Amino acid sequence: MEALAVEWLDAFGVYPDPVERAWGLATHSADFSCRIIPDGDVEVLLLFTEWNYWANAVDDWQDSGSDEVGTGAVVEHGVRLLRTIEDPGASVLPDGPMTRALLDLVGRTHAMLTPHELRRFVEGTRDWLLGAAWRAAQAEAGTMPGLNDFVAMGPLANGTRFSLTWSDAARGDRLPAEVLCSPALTALTDAAGFVVSADNDLFSYDKDDHLEPREVNLVNVLARQENCSPAEAVPLAVALRDRVMVLFTRLRAQLENGPDGPDGPAGANGELRRHLAALGHYVAGSIAWQSRAPRYASPRNRHELPLAEARFAVRFADAPSFAGTEPPDVPALASWWRQVRD
């Protein structure tokens, strides 16, 4: 999968020089794609993998710290990108390798996805771009948001629904809108997105720790709130992440089993069970991918080129660092707990 995706990247000249190519490939986007979608249609997965390499190139541009990449530029590009996905013939992006690669992705995406899947993908892309614009605005203003604002809007940049659309499409599962958009499954999806976002903030912290003002991420938000150092805020971030993960496991079991148990009339059908399993692959796969990706394990602010064998030493605990089941005193998170039946 990686070899095919890299061949596609090189054919469009997505990376302008060998150094940018090395850092682009250090994202290990194929590893990410295959870990969160471990089975399904290979052609769908390949297209998703190419989207991830392309999106990471955009993400690197947004995070470059260049004076040219302010909030206005991020918003302007985001709007034009969305319109291009919805209408490939709109011709609202300047010509160049990235645009030509995008048009190829969009054309194949329109041919591959159903209208409903395409709408889900657009909405997932909108989440990603809105989250990126919000983070850019915070950085440009030199402000560190409060915890509630951050957990409500920061994880949007993770593109959870961007990814999960392809997971369902690869398996050929098409959940009814009333199930996919139900309050409980919406809360579960948002909880998964928060956990993955929190993990990313931890794995990627070194990559951005040279920035002034500090990068808007969960560790720095908590450090400001608690008036402590980032190192002292790490256990707080892990505890909040674990708290949401406990909620995730409870709510997912509830949706899978239904009130009458796994074999009762209210138990989840096959498509919903596979979708719930995919949410687990999304969380666990993201951890495995990030722990091995040179993008994070040998960050660019410390190395001229990525180190191919760079790894994080991940330790697994026997229990969450916070095992309680009550909601945290953070309204943007606490609303998810209302979906759990006692």
Describe the fold and architecture.
The protein is an all-alpha fold and 342 residues long. Helices cover 66% and strands 0% of the residues. The chain contains 17 helices and no strands. The chain is globular. About 2% of the residues have low confidence.
Write a brief caption for the model.
Helix content is 66%, strand content 0%. It has helices at 2-12, 18-25, 29-36, 42-62, 71-86, 97-112, 115-141, 147-153, 160-171, 177-180, 183-203, 205-208, 218-226, 230-257, 270-292, 294-297, 331-337.
Question: Secondary structure elements and their pairing?
Answer:
Elements (H helix, E strand, L loop, with lengths): L1 H11 L5 H8 L3 H8 L5 H21 L8 H16 L10 H16 L2 H27 L5 H7 L6 H12 L5 H4 L2 H21 L1 H4 L9 H9 L3 H28 L12 H23 L1 H4 L33 H7 L5
CA-atom Rg in angstroms: 20 Å
Oligomer: single chain
Number of helices: 17
Going by helix content, strand content and strand pairing, the class is: mainly alpha
What portion of the residues fall into strands of 2 or more residues?
under 5%
Distance between the termini: 44 Å
Number of strands: 0
> What's the mean pLDDT score?
92
Overall 3D shape: globular
Order of helices and strands: HHHHHHHHHHHHHHHHH
What are the low-pLDDT stretches, counting only 5+ consecutive residues below 50? 260-265
Largest sheet: none
- Assign a percent range to the helix content: 55-70%
Keywords:
globular; about 350 residues
